[in-house]
Amino acid sequence: MDSFVEQLTRGAEEEFTEESAWDGSAVRIESSSLPAIHLPVLPRYLQHTTTGGRKATGFQETKTACFNYIHEALLENQWQRAAEFMTAYLETLESTSAEHRMAAPEVVWRIGAEILCHHSKSSIEEFNYFAERIKNVGVKNYLKVCLEHVFHLLCNGLIDDAYRNLSLAEGWRYGEQTAAHDKEMKLIQAYKGLLDYYNWSEKRKAMLELDDDDLAQFVEQEMHSFFRQAAVNFKEIIKIPGVWDPFVKCYVELLEFYEDYDEVRQVLSEYAYNSKFPSNPNAHVYLYQFLKRQGESKKTRIAVLKILHELVPSHELMLEYNAMLQKSKKRKKHRLGLQVIFTVLDFAGWKEHVKAWSCLAKQIKQILENSSKHLYWIMEEWNSRKDWWPAFHFSHHLAKINWQENESLACEKAFVAGILLGKDCKYFRYVSHQGHKAKKGRFQTMKKFVKKHSSSHNPSVSI
Amino acid sequence: MEEEETRDYSEPCMQCCIINWGLTDEGKFYCKSCHNVIERTTEVLTSDVVPNTKIQSISKGLRKRKKIDKGWEWYVCEGFQCILKKQAEALQALGVSPQMKDEILCNFWRCYLQKSKQAYCSMPVTDNALISDIGTDVDSEPERISLHGFSSFSESDGDLQTESSFGRVSSIGKASATETTSVCSGSVDGGSYLLKRKKGDLKMSMPMTLSLCYLALLWLREPVTLSDLLRFVLDGHIPYLNAFQCFPEEMKLYGVDLKIFRVESWPVYEDVHKKMYELAAFLDLPCFPAITNSCFLHPNILCIKYLMEANLPDELHNWTCRVVKKINVGETDFLTLDPVNKSTRKVKYDVLAAALIIVVLKLLFLLDDQYEWLHASFARKRNQKNKEECPWFDFKKWYTIIKKSLDVEQKKLDEERARCLWKCEKPLFYSAKEKYIVLKRRQTVVNLQRQFGSLSGSMQVSEKQKPSSFQLNWAEENTDGICFHGHILEGILQEKDNSLTTTNTKYWLCTVKLCNEKICGHLTHYKESDFPQSYQFVLNLFSFLLRVPASLIHEEVCLIEHKLFKTKLRRR
Question: Does the model's ipTM exceed the 0.85 cut?
Answer without folding.
Answer: no
